[in-house]
Amino acid sequence: MYTQCNHCNAIFRVTMKELTAAQGLLRCGECDNIFDAMKNLSQTLPEERRFAKLSTVIPAEIEEPIPIRPARPLEKLLKRFLNIKSWHSRYFLIIGVSALVLLLILQVLYISRNWLAQQPMTSALTQQLCALMNCDVTIPRDVRAISLLSRNIYSHPNAPKVLTISASIQNNAAFPQPYPLIEISFLDKNNKVLALRRFPPEEYMHNFTEKLMPIGVPDELILNITDPGEDAIRFQFRFM
Fold first, then answer.
1. pTM: predicted TM-score of the whole model, two decimal places
2. Which DSSP category does 215 fall into?
């Protein structure tokens, strides 16, 4: 006997035993739709459906498919077509999933950009990418990790009442960081501040281009400041 799915019009060969066991309800092997096989039950294959595919049907309560041999050689061509269609579906599915994964990774990197900017291995790359993408990133800084390696003061050779201070500073942090604001103060014998001046990086770095202090590399700097007079007996540095 033959029956037909009312959803995709696929034709199936069935037995009365199968219909009785499933109470007339079968699952279409083509569209997975459950249909009433008794409504379109026929003893013969209709002439206009002679070349339609005889597909596998599954009783609604049974999970295992019932194997049925194809009625005509046309079934091989249809299977090949379905396999090609399935391959294309998997191909586009892989592309879609890959795009979603890439988008998720970019979102995680964007959210973690400040943390990545503080890591020695990813700091420079993170700042370069954020510069290209025009996103804000908080550059880590720790002025306590900047050390004064040497300092010296002497009268300016060409300008009267001007003192020249030469010094060497170094970034000992585990990450590159912005150059600090340097405060120089002169004190008398009672530790009273007689003169104070703060120097931005543009004033003490030659050809400063807003670059970061490298890790463990000394920077030599020259500062000029007005002579505070004979009462000043010492001076001190402070990084800000």
1. 0.46
2. B
Beta bridge partners of 143: none
Tell me which residues of the chain have a pLDDT lower than 70.
45-74, 76-91, 93, 106, 108-115, 117-120, 123, 137
Residue (of 214, 209, 218, 240) closest to 120 by Cα position: 214
- In this prediction, residue 65 carries a pLDDT of 42
* Selection from 89, 95, 30, 19 nearest residue 56 by Cα: 30
CA-nearest of 152, 156, 155, 164 to 204 is 164
Q: Could you give the angle at the alpha carbon of 240 between the alpha carbons of 127 and 226, nearest 5°?
A: 125
pLDDT number for residue 66:
43
Please list, residue by residue across 97-123, b when 16 or more beta carbons sit within 10 angstroms of its beta carbon and e when fewer do: eeeeeeeeeeeeeeeebeebbbeeebb
The distance from CA 6 to its chain's CA centroid, rounded to whole angstroms, is 48
Are the C-beta atoms of 123 and 116 separated by less than 8 Å? yes
Element (H, E) at 94: helix 74-111
What DSSP element (H or E) covers 152? strand 146-155
**Integer Cα distance of 232 and 185 in angstroms:** 10
Give me the residue spans of the domains in the chain: 2-72, 143-239
Return the pLDDT at 81. 56
Residue 26 · residue 34 · CB < 8 Å: yes
> Is CATH 3.40.50.300 the classification given to domain 143-239?
no
